[in-house]
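User: Just a sanity check before I run the rest of the batch. Below are the structure tokens for the first item. I only need the designed sequence back.
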């Protein structure tokens, strides 16, 4: 059996708005958009993609799954994302080499140290 990760689905209140935020944050492209959600890809035909779908409930607890991103310059990327509307969050991580941020709807993600 062979598995390939196709997409990561992110529940949200406003799929279009949140997808647009991630589009700017990642420089990925919208490859599909309809009443069910918005899908972003690194480039057409590349996976995994990010799929933003509307849900009725609001986020209320720490994510059970989150995205880790590796930048060229961690501090510059953290500063850029905060400038776009991300916020620093404390999920109990303590002092670590990564920085935990949340997108405008509160979904946590990490910016790792450059490798």
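Assistant: Here's the designed sequence for the first item:
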């Amino acid at each position: 059996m062979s598995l390939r990760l196709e997409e990561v689905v992110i529940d949200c209140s406003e799929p279009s708005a949140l997808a647009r935020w991630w589009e700017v944050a990642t420089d990925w492209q919208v490859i599909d958009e309809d009443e069910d959600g918005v899908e972003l890809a690194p480039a057409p035909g590349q996976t995994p993609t990010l799929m933003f779908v509307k849900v009725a409930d609001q986020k209320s607890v720490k994510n059970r799954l989150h995205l880790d991103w590796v930048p060229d310059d961690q501090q510059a990327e953290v500063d850029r994302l905060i400038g776009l509307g991300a916020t620093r969050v404390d999920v109990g991580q303590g002092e670590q080499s990564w920085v935990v941020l949340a997108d405008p709807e509160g979904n946590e993600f990490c910016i790792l140290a450059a490798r």
